[in-house]
Design brief:
The chain is 39% helix and 12% strand. The protein has twelve helices and eight strands. The strands form two sheets. It has a five-stranded parallel β-sheet with strand order 3-4-5-6-7. A three-stranded parallel β-sheet has the order 2-1-8. Strand 4, helix 6 and strand 5 form a beta-alpha-beta unit. Helix 3 packs parallel to helix 5 and helix 5 crosses helix 6. The longest helix has 20 residues. It is globular, with a radius of gyration of 18 Å. The structure holds phosphoenolpyruvate (PEP) and magnesium ion. The site of phosphoenolpyruvate (PEP) has 10 residues, from helix 8. GO terms for molecular function: kinase activity; metal ion binding; phosphoenolpyruvate-protein phosphotransferase activity. It catalyses: L-histidyl-[protein] + phosphoenolpyruvate = N(pros)-phospho-L-histidyl-[protein] + pyruvate. It is an enzyme of class 2 (transferase). Keywords: Cytoplasm, Kinase, Magnesium, Metal-binding, Phosphotransferase system, Pyruvate, Sugar transport, Transferase, Transport.
Length: 290
Amino acid sequence: EARRQASHLGKPALTAAGERVLTYINVDDPHILPAVDPASCDGVGLTRTEFLFSGEGGLPGEGRQLGAYKALMRWAGGRPVTIRTLDAGGDKPIPGLTPDGESNPFLGLRGLRLSLARPDVFRVQLRALARAAIEGELKVMLPMVTRPQELDATRAMFRQVVSELLAEGIPAAMPKLGMMVEVPAAALNIAAFDADFFSIGSNDLVQYVTAAGRDCEAVRDLYDPLEPGVLELIHRVAEHGRLTGREVSLCGDMASDPKYLPALLDAGLRAVSVAPARLARAKAEIAGYG
Ligand code: PEP
Ligand code: MG
């Protein structure tokens, strides 16, 4: 069985009906990359940059971030690399950066909200990303976007950072700018967002739609990725992407679990991003679909 799954690794994922499904990997920690063959996937669908921020050494400077982003792009060898801006807060607290004492951190100052509240920190990351953008196909993704204005404000800030770098004589470019769809308000209002691509964050979307915490064992049965309201939102976002020619993928754990893949493909998704260890199993499941 493992051999049969592994045999899918070397080929692009196609459904039984011959439809191409982009299969990216999630990178939580780039240390795992040497063990992954980049040719086994279509690129990186999510990089959780929290790994850079959670170490002992305090906040990472522009140079250290640039080094990490360039290493990822070098590994990917021309395949697209999606790097998510800092998603601190909620289940990912960063001491000294995320607020203490919030009564409900999942509904608080987390993700892009925190980055916009801390332009001193955010601008360093945007500078590093703008410099990495000249190295290959970089896609920058924003977490926890709720309103179109947040995306617009970020795009404006990003453009300003690019002009500043160029004025300093440092090569830089504006990458594609996309967003996570993990807040129900954003999923319901998807057409209002000026994003270059979308990636559904089912880990958070499921918890916000069902009002059942992603880390709360006592309500585990309510935290159901197959809840009709969740599938309806995924379907609507996929349809919006199809009609407007923008990529919609899904990078939450739901995509890494083969038992949910048929529902995602039924909902219209044709791109997923999975944990590297789940890639072979996911590609095998896709091959059996339809
Ligand atoms: C998600 O919410 O599904 C997601 C991919 O992001 P994270 O798990 O890092 O919140
Ligand atoms: Mg999330």
